[in-house]
Design goal:
single chain, 153 residues, alpha+beta, Arc Repressor Mutant, subunit A, Alpha-Beta Plaits
């Protein structure tokens, strides 16, 4: 983060809260001219600090209110097995995240599903068919206490 200054940080803080803010409003909030602000945002995109802009959807209104975390331990650590697993896991609908882990499980998956029946369907159709799985443990989130996409800058 040596490539950015305090103004860039302020821009990023505002954009994390409201990615649809107009350039004029953003410029006013960070005390820049509109053209200078636009150049800075473009530069932040070019250097990869701003990866994308996206809409955050209400999962409850889209019938995907249940969050399930699945810990998966593979039968081995061979590169071919890891690559096959990662290819297969990308095909799972409603998968929000998949992380290669250090610790007891090899992978941690986060899914957004309708309910336990929907998860049972995904488990039956996808999770049980993942290559190299030795052990799987699923946990259902009861309530979300904190959820954010914003990074501390």
């Amino acid at each position: 983060m040596n490539d950015i200054d305090a103004i860039d940080r302020r821009i990023l803080v505002v954009l994390q809260k409201d990615g649809r803010i107009t350039n004029a409003e953003l410029a006013a909030q960070v005390h820049l001219s509109a053209s200078a602000c636009h150049r800075r945002v473009q530069r932040l995109e070019q250097i990869g600090l701003i990866r994308n802009f996206a809409a955050l959807l209400d999962r409850r209104k889209l019938s995907r209110a249940t969050t399930v975390y699945v810990e998966i331990t593979l039968s081995g650590q061979a590169t071919e097995l890891l690559e096959a697993f990662e290819r297969a896991v990308r095909t799972i609908p409603d998968l929000l995240e998949c992380h290669l882990m250090a610790g007891t499980a090899d992978y941690l998956l986060k899914l957004a599903v309708e309910d336990t029946e929907d998860f049972a369907r995904i488990h039956r159709q996808y999770l049980t068919r993942l290559p190299g799985v030795a052990q799987m443990h699923s946990s259902f989130a009861l309530r979300t206490v904190v959820e954010t996409t914003a990074l501390r800058l």
